[in-house]
Queue: 2 jobs
Job 1
Amino acid sequence: MRKKVLQILPMYDPKGEEILRRGADVVYTDRYDEDHLCQMVQGVHAIVLRAPAKITRRIIEAADCLEVISGAGVGVDNIDVLAATERGIPVLHAPHLNNNATAEHTVALMLSLSKMVVAGDRAMRRHQFSARDGMRTMELRGKRLGLVGFGRIAQRVAEIARQGFGMQVMMYVRTVDERRRQRAEELQVQLTTDLAELFSTSDIVSLHVPLTPETRHMVNRDILDRMQPHALLINTARGGVVDHDALYQALKEKKLAGAALDVFDPEPPEPLELFQMEQVITTPHIGGLTREATEQTAVTVAENVLKVLHGQKVDTVSNPEVFQDR
Ligand code: NAP
């Protein structure tokens, strides 16, 4: 029997949709209110959804033969994982396929800020060629890049910065162990457990930690005050890691020279004055959205949903405990 998949909103790439359609009967909806979805899940074996659609406990409890739920990308914060786990339903996602994409976007923002690409473009659009007289850009070679976090994206940024630009790289970790020390040696970077040191000595600071209660507003007034007046801040991690009011004040008071933000809290963001500042660059959370990463993500999601429907285990599961008894 062919299984039935409910697809809510388009996947990140049509290749994933093709794979799903080849392996199952796909029902598509772009309506995602709870009542509608409670009806749609009847007779459905799998759900593939994309934010802002949400799978709530009520929807999961309304399903009669649901075997698997999958987010369309990295996040599962729009799925009630606990309710799914209680019913033994695996919740899949496709983590880490956009690491390189996000690292490259970080570097793009670092170059755009330090070379004043966006400010220059804005001046040209206003026919202000003479703006160049007051513009002094910054070279990256020999500068200190401070990376907050030592995960996959931070390490890829470190590689590019060290090998590509000859920057000195310092990375903030909560604890240092032998494995990290060795990896830091391979990457030719310095580790620190002192966040204040990293902010006060870096020419560019870039954030690469998840949003947790511990990291929410980690970049606050106190830490921003420690930055050097010529220093730049980049956030491609999560919007909530930065206190945007504090960043606005710090930029106004010239505690740092500029900031580039790809992520916001909430998304889409409120129209803050911060985003209108000349020394601020923003992009609409596109760090991970390369053609390559979105295609690989959609294909992985579709293939893994079909595998679970055929009784196989996959390792891209956010609640692996549901596979334990199988
Ligand atoms: P990862 O490999 O899981 O690494 C996360 C790192 O953060 C780890 O080194 C972890 O250290 C560290 N960390 C966690 N809490 C910390 C804290 N309180 N203080 C210091 N370090 C802490 O993550 P990743 O794949 O590199 O992703 C990094 C960020 O990028 C995430 O916020 C992710 O959501 C974001 N992201 C954004 C985009 C985009 O489109 N802009 C795309 C992909 C990912 P431990 O090992 O000690 O826990």
Job 2
Amino acid sequence: MGSLGPSAVVFAYHNIGVRCLKVLLARGVHIPLVITHEDSPSETIWFDSVADTCREHSIPFITPTNPKSPDLLSQVQALRPEFIFSFYYRYILPTNILQQARHGAYNMHGSLLPKYRGRVPVNWAVLHGETETGMTLHEMTAKPDAGAIVAQIAVPILPDDTAFEVFGKLSVAAENLLWDILPRMLEDGDAIPRFTNDISRGSYFGGRKPEDGRIDWSRPAQEVYNLHRAVAPPYPGAWTELPCGKRLTIGKARLSTREPCSLEPGLSVLDGGIVGIGGDGRMIVIHQLLDSDQQLVSAYSLARKLALQNTHVLCAAPSIPTKHLLILGVNGFIGHHLLKRVLETTTWRVTGMDLDNHRISSLINHQAYRSRLVFKQGDMTAHASWIDDQIKNHCDIVLPLAAIATPRTYVEEPLSVFELDFEANLAVVRQTAKHGKRLIFPSTSEVYGMCGDGDFNPDTSDLVCGPIHKTRWMYSSSKQLMDRVIWAYGMANNKHPLDFTLFRPFNWIGTGLDSLRHSTSVTSKNCDDKTSSSSRVTTQFLGQILDGGEITLVNGGAQKRSFTHVNDGIDSLMKIIENKDNVTTGKIYNIGNPQNNCSIRELANLMLSTASEFPEFTDASSRTRIIERDGAEYYGEGYQDVGRRVPNIDQTCEDLGWRPEVSLEEAVRELFDGLSR
Ligand code: UGA
């Protein structure tokens, strides 16, 4: 082992870890330490061992279970490496480790970033029917797979490729990519290329579990085939259950080119062979079907298992519970983030309505989502019978997200707020109760009004609004009354209690909150074109910083909010929709981030200092001034405010197994990131 070359501490696992480690060695990099994982006894280990490679090359290696341990930090610190590399290492590395490398920390990620950030990108890409993916070497930052791109290389995904096959191509791609770029990186650590990684154009995906391989035979055959390709062995496989409860997994299969047939969807035996019929009647020819002991199941034995011998065609169509959501206000701030997440990470169906579609047009036009998304453009108040039909006949979960949610409108147009937020939504609540469907309703942090509690608790805090002439509280009281109505519909002494969950977002922020120009994310025809001073505070400040104008601190800016990144909010909302073991039924959840509690003045300063770090905003931000104005003057006489709004999220965390993770600094940086392109 040479020890004179530039040094790198390497975090590595899996085949890509092995191949890239070997590239570093071949290019003369000195590796004083490798950090890898112990193989998990519950995982099929089909890939090469980084630990073995280290042993062969006499490289010291460790397998810590906590990448945040002070011990690991001090080991890396002591080595003072020039580079840190991460090659398929499974933990997110803390920034204090990343900062130890003088010429930066770099990660090899298996996708064409910014697409498919996060976990198991190859499997997700195949699942979504992508025809291309790739390898990206990028700078590591606190946020996963979000740093600048150093180099990237594409590989094709052919129509019948499994994720395993694509992974093989990517291992070679990673090796090529690193071999080519390494000399430049080693020669001059300050001249390493850095291309924008525009994460707003990609998505983050979570891990996958064997359970996620369950086949929904009502889906088109191509989708089922994509699932099979995405998880085919050596991954855990796409599986289905016979009526007797036996689990069968597809080993090998091909999508048939035959015309759709009229057979029932499900597993069948046809002409002596095993086939799977999709919801569109198209067929998958199954060459290898495995039982739970990994033994091959023949067509004959399948026929026997189905207890339907001597028939030409045998069908088992186990239908699985899937979800069909009705989202009203699907183009709004929460609506469009939720829609994206649902389409990208589940097999659920969505019917959506909104006045506009500018935030979701790419989803509406996406080929892969055509069969799962129905969008109707229109005003909910003008399409009551359409909504009723959707609730009654098509959807099982209703999310009425259409609302006016900007304080200026509460002050100036309280009746519009009442008409949409209460009256129009009441009709939807009633229909949902009448047809026995599940309701997930957006209450609001505003219901707590000027409550004096240190943190607001859905079960114990009082809801405190000011006098009637303070029209600011129309939103709060409309939502409060609706919460009470929904609660009453859900009471156990009703003949058919409503299955509901109320969630209370606490100052969610993120891309697409309010438009910088029109600045309201409203779904009422009366209220969608306000002046630029009617957005919520982050949008307001953003617009003013970009203009190099004046940031207004209302009433001095000492009032505080707990700003919550929309991705954290959507994470919890997804769990509410999943409603595992019905735990969320009949509950009210605060969804906010108490860690991000800060004053509006602090927010203004943070946004200004963040803007100054972006070359394109430095000039405007240096011209931006902070001024103070009285609330009545800024919003009107009907304005009144709350000094502090901290959510108590104990119950939310406990029931959902969730906690918010995005810091205010990261959330604000992302707002500017989104604009810097
Ligand atoms: C918001 C809105 O009512 C809803 O979006 C929502 O129900 C709720 O809070 C929430 O997101 O949880 P609020 O936080 O008062 O209410 O509204 P913002 O417009 O975001 O204002 C936050 C604070 O900043 C207020 O104290 C306001 O006076 C102040 N502000 C706002 C300024 O100092 N300057 C501005 O230019 C704008």
